[in-house]
């Protein structure tokens, strides 16, 4: 009774190993399911519709960004942190805080400010997964873009979201925000 047999120990290890694989597979499948456009649009339908009017949805190269490309970090640790943060939105939807387009638009500025602060803090990492200064061809950009991008590159003091708020979504009411007209 004090020491298990080799067979029972092997059986326990076998169950633990395969149980771990099944758990990890289920967990990963669930995480990936929450990265789909269909999942996002179940609460954020008005926003998903707005994206259809932008270059991130339809463009000459056929490369299309979906919600998770911009709003979910790609590395595992940051992705898990973001998923926990985003669970507040699921709770808000379930509790009726943002369950209609009208309620969503009332909270839109708060949600946008929170997302912009997150992107500022991480140096717009999700933007940089596709757009990186080192690979930009300034000769293909307009004068204003060249000036702004080269200045930001030289100074290193700006991140994508500083200038590109509203690039993939319509801006919320920006009344009272310095620098927005």
Short description:
The chain is an all-alpha fold and 181 residues long. It is built from eight helices and no strands.
Which properties best describe this structure?
0% strand; 181 residues; Multiheme cytochrome fold; 60% helix; mainly alpha; extended
In CATH, the topology is named Multiheme cytochrome fold
Give the number of domains.
1
Q: Classify the secondary structure makeup into a structural class.
A: mainly alpha
CATH class assignment = Mainly Alpha
Poorly predicted runs are: none
- Rounded to the nearest angstrom, the radius of gyration is 22 Å
Count the E strands. 0
Main sheet makeup: none
Element-by-element helix/strand order: HHHHHHHH
CATH architecture annotation: Orthogonal Bundle
Per DSSP, the total helix count is: 8
The end-to-end span amounts to 78 Å
Provide the β-strand percentage band.
under 5%
Overall spatial form? extended
What average pLDDT do the residues reach? Answer: 87
Portion in helices: 55-70%
């Amino acid at each position: 009774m004090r020491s298990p047999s080799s067979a029972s120990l092997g059986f326990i290890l076998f169950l633990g190993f395969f149980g771990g694989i099944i758990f990890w597979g289920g967990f990963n499948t669930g995480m990936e399911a929450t990265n789909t456009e269909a999942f996002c649009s179940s609460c954020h339908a008005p926003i998903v519709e707005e994206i259809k009017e932008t270059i991130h949805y339809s463009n000459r190269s056929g490369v299309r960004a979906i919600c998770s490309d911009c709003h979910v970090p790609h590395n595992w640790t940051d992705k898990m942190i973001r998923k926990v943060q985003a669970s507040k939105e699921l709770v808000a939807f379930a509790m009726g805080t943002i369950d209609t387009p009208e309620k969503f638009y009332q909270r839109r500025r708060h949600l946008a400010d929170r997302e912009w602060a997150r992107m500022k803090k991480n140096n717009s990492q999700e933007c940089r997964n596709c757009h990186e200064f080192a690979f930009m061809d300034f000769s293909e950009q307009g004068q204003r873009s060249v000036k702004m991008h080269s200045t930001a590159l030289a100074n290193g003091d700006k991140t994508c979201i500083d200038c590109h708020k509203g690039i993939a979504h319509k801006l919320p009411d920006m009344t009272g925000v310095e620098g927005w007209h």
